[in-house]
Each structure stands twice: as structure tokens, then as C-alpha cells.
Amino acid sequence: MKKIGIGVIGCGFIAQTAHLPNYLNNPHVKILAVADVVSAKLNQVKEKYDVDAYSDYKELLKRPDIEAVSICAPTNLHVGIATEAAELGKHILVEKPIALSLAEADQIISTAQKNRVKLMVGYNYRFLPNHQLAIRFVKQGRIGKPYFVRGQFASAGPYQNLEEAKKTHYLNPAAGGGALFDSGSHLIDLLLWMFGDVKQVAANMGTYMEGVQVEDVATVILQFKNGVLGEVNVTWVNLPDYFAMRNSNVIEIIGSEGKVESDFFGPSLSFYSKHSRICKLKGTVKLTPKPLDPKIPFFALQFSQKKTIDSFIDCILHDSAPPVLGEEARKVLQVTLSAFESFRAGSIIQLP
Q1: Residue-wise pLDDT tens digits, 122-148
Q2: Chain-centre distance of CA 200, in angstroms?
């Protein structure tokens, strides 16, 4: 059986927890090489996975046996790496956000199209079955006409180890750091995936942690073209217990005849409809899709990361469209950048 040769560029947290282990477990893949400018991380991954290692990603891209790459480097580096990878005919899975600017996103998308390579963006939360079930309920009309959606994400983020985080891109505004750009991007993607295009954006944000130069709390109000009003709330929380904020991570959808609350990290959702016989007897019903086990913490998140990698490989094997397109990621970026523009201007931003 032919295996797709994979290279991973960037050996940080997301590469080590999501990309590398899931490539390793995919029977259609062989991890051939990794690249990173930080020698400690590079050597650690090299030894663990027994692969070739490069301090310069350009050397990795030159290899003809590498057919596809995961780009797990900081956001400000995406455009250069992705453009070179596409020009050399490599299929691309790039971590979110796709780029720092719309011009950079356009360059990545157009270069991938020109060279006929697959381009997928790593919005893994779309693959959680509870979110997929939530939007299915909405489209089936089980909560009536939706008119409000709220996405909220509160996590420790880089504040788990602030001193170490100061050495990374998470707290560097020039590299795409900040809670909205890094974490809020997932929420915005989910809301756009569920409800389509946005016509206007208003935002406010701030920084509560001393010595930090990026926003660590933000609220964004979205007016969708279909009339739905949306709200995105994101913050990094300096609390030692993750589970203390578990109920703060949710996608809530309210309709004229019911509501859905879907756990942001999975695995479950709560559903209520005034027309449901079960809801009339029991009130709100909690559901957990079969592939997931609510007793195992973080299993749903790991499930979504595996699905992301497997879907990327499948679209290469079957020459099909990736499930998360570059054009979709560009829309997420446009909304995110409009939120920053709204905050700076103190006004509502109309999207074209």
C-alpha cells in the first residue's frame, strides 16, 4: 500500500499533540521529516518519531518524497511557507488562522489553486459530532427559526505558564498572538459554518494580565446576512483548574421554538423544543453522540484532531475537496480583522 510522505513544519504544542501522533496512527501516511528553528523542540520530535530533522524548512520542502505538509508555525510565517510549499507541489494543511492579512490569505489560496494542490485549514472543532448534531437540529427546524447564537471560550491558553509563553508567538501581536486571533478564530469559524456570511461587526476588547501586550479578553457582535444575531466571547483565564471554567465553553443557539447548547470541547449538547414529546416530559435533554465517551476528559478534542488529519489525507487519496477550504478560512480572518478595526474605530464595521 502506497503511503503519503508527510513533513511537519513547526514542532510546537499543536504539532506534538495533534498533527504528529495522528499522522503516525494513519495507515496511509509515513512521517518523513520535521522542521523547526528551535533546536530543543526539533531534537525532541526527531528522537520520538525517528524522522529526519531540519532547522530550515526550505530543505524539507525540497524533498521529492514529501507530498504534503502540515504548517504548524506561527501565523505570521504561514504565507511564506505555504506559498513555497504550493509552488513545489506539496498539499497543505495549515493551522488556523490562515494568515495575518487578507492579502496574505489571498496569496496562499491563489498559489494553491495555480499549482493544483490541496489546501485545508485546521478548524478541528467542526469535526465534533455534537456541533454537527447541533447544526443538523437547526437546519431541520427543530428549534424553529434561529435568531441568536453565542459562542464562548474561556481557557488558560498561554497563561498556564506565562513566563514560557512570553517566548512564543501567543503574546506577540506581530506574530498573530492574542485571545481573539488565536482562540476566538475557532468560535468565529463555527458560527460562520453554521449561519453563513456576516454583514456587520462590532467589538470591544481589553487586557487584564499585567505585562501582556495583546488582548486577553474580547467580545464581538455579529450580524449575519440571514438576520441571526451572534456574539463571540473569548478570554484567557489565569485559573489553575480547567474544569472551573468548563460551563463557560459553549455554542448556544436560540430559536423561536427551542434552543441548543453544544459543549465547545465536546462531547455533548443540550436540546429543548416546545414541540418535543421528550422535552415536554423531561425538560431539557442532554445528548452525547455515539462515537464519544463523556467519561473521558478531552477525548472529544482528540477525536476532532484525528478527524482533521484523516480528512486531509482522504482528500489527497480521493482527489476530493478539503472539508475546510482556504476561502472559508479567509472569511473567518475577514471577520476577525473587522473586529479589531471596530475596536480601534469605536464603530460598527460593514463587511463588503
Answers
A1: 999 999 999 999 999 999 999 999 999
A2: 22
Residue 22's alpha-carbon distances to 15, 88, 119, 315, in angstroms, are 10, 24, 18, 16
Domains and CATH numbers, the chain: 4-124+305-324 (3.40.50.720), 126-294+333-350 (3.30.360.10)
Q: How confident is the model over 266-321, as pLDDT tens digits?
A: 999 999 999 888 888 889 999 999 888 888 878 999 999 999 999 999 999 999 99
Kindly state the DSSP code that residue 345 receives in the 8-state scheme.
Answer: H
> Using CA atoms, how far apart are residues 231 and 190, in angstroms rounded to an integer?
12
Please state the pTM of the whole predicted model. 0.96
Pairwise CA distance, residues 277 & 151, whole Å: 28
Nearest Cα residue to 33 out of 2, 3, 66, 62: 66
The full DSSP string for 104-139 is: HHHHHHHHHHHTT--EEE--GGGG-HHHHHHHHHHH
Q: Which long-range contacts (C-beta less than 8 Å, at least 24 apart) are formed by 58-65?
A: 58/84, 59/35, 60/7, 60/9, 60/33, 60/34, 60/35, 61/7, 61/85, 61/88, 61/90, 62/88, 63/5, 63/7, 63/32, 63/33, 65/5, 65/32
Percent of the chain with pLDDT over 90: 86
What is the SS3 assignment for 140?
A: coil
Given a contact cutoff of 8 angstroms between Cβ atoms, the answer to whether 216 and 178 are in contact is: yes
Cα torsion 316, 319, 324, 325: sign? positive
